């Protein structure tokens, strides 16, 4: 396997300074999570496949137990002086803790973490990319895709919500749903997710997070984020898929959803009534979209 010298220059320890707290986290990972540490000697980068506000994602190879595994390498932006570095570090720790807790075919798997020279998550690689990009393609998606993908997303959410302690995703959207080589959906990107343990932690869940057209209306009014808020996001995703199936073209949810979601219920349900008046899934999505938490 190639050595750490083959890593991108951006990962070299002298390429960018780190805050003392980041350096401390590196040592914590080395001392407290030895079973999850991955050596740079076992990792090879190939290409940049994604970039967000808090991280860059590379495709790579991980040599483990004598086998070469395709992986996604999530390299966090923890540069000294970056105002969001501490927040990114906190979200990384949350994501790592959650992925270690989960073991499900409907959740992207964690292989481990690189602590030095830069903190990176070594994740399962899903060659099909994001569901969002699949829906935007000029290709047909059939009802079999809707039922399969919908079932897999629901089972993935069920894994989160039935965990002990419970986990809420808080940023469920088609960009964070990945398709593997066998066309199965896996939930990814747990940087905004939270493990619900105490009332103190619950108090932090009233902060607005996620993407607005997927965010449940109650969050905009200061109510706490619960598993039912994830359910609302699920309804928007199912609407995206079923709209693609029926219309043959992708319709972005923000084109019919207002900032506070107050108009979304009526407009979405009118569209779905026109498309699939007699389908069971219409009733399912209708229930998931209710503004009332008791009815959702």
From TrEMBL:
Known catalytic reactions: L-seryl-[protein] + ATP = O-phospho-L-seryl-[protein] + ADP + H(+); L-threonyl-[protein] + ATP = O-phospho-L-threonyl-[protein] + ADP + H(+)
Residues reported to bind ATP: 75
Species of the source: Arcella intermedia
Protein's recorded name: Protein kinase domain-containing protein
Molecular functions per Gene Ontology: ATP binding; protein serine/threonine kinase activity
Similarity field: Belongs to the protein kinase superfamily.
Ranges for domain Protein kinase: 43-296
Matches recorded under Gene3D superfamilies: Transferase(Phosphotransferase) domain 1
Pfam family, one: Pkinase
InterPro entries noted in UniProt: Kinase-like_dom_sf, Prot_kinase_dom, Protein_kinase_ATP_BS, Ser/Thr_kinase_AS, Ser/Thr_Kinases-Pseudokinases
Keywords, in A-Z order: ATP-binding, Kinase, Nucleotide-binding, Serine/threonine-protein kinase, Transferase
């Amino acid at each position: 396997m190639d050595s750490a010298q083959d890593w991108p220059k951006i990962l070299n320890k002298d390429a960018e300074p780190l805050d003392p707290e980041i350096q401390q986290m590196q040592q914590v990972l080395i001392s407290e999570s030895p079973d999850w540490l991955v050596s740079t000697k076992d990792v090879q980068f190939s290409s940049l496949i994604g970039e967000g506000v808090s991280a860059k994602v590379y495709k790579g190879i991980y040599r483990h137990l004598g086998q070469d595994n395709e992986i996604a390498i999530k390299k966090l932006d923890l540069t000294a002086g970056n105002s969001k570095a501490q927040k990114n570090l906190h979200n990384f720790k949350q994501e790592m803790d959650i992925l270690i807790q989960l073991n499900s075919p409907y959740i992207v798997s964690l292989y481990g973490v690189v602590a030095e020279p830069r903190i990176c998550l070594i994740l399962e690689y899903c060659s099909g990319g994001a569901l969002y990009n699949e829906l935007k393609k000029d290709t047909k998606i059939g009802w079999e895709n809707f039922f399969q993908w919908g079932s897999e997303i629901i089972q993935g959410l069920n894994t989160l919500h039935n965990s002990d302690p419970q986990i809420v995703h808080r940023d469920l959207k088609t960009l964070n749903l990945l398709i593997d080589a066998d066309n199965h959906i896996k939930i990814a990107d747990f940087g905004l997710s939270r493990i619900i343990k105490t009332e103190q932690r619950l108090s932090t869940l009233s902060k607005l997070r996620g993407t607005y057209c997927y965010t449940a209306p109650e969050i905009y009014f200061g109510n706490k984020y619960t598993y039912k808020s994830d359910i609302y996001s699920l309804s928007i995703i199912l609407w995206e898929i079923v709209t693609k199936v029926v219309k043959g073209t992708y319709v972005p949810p923000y084109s019919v959803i207002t900032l506070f979601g107050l108009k979304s219920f009526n407009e979405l349900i009118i569209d779905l009534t026109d498309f699939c008046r007699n389908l069971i899934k219409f009733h399912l999505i209708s229930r998931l979209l209710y503004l009332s938490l008791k009815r959702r």
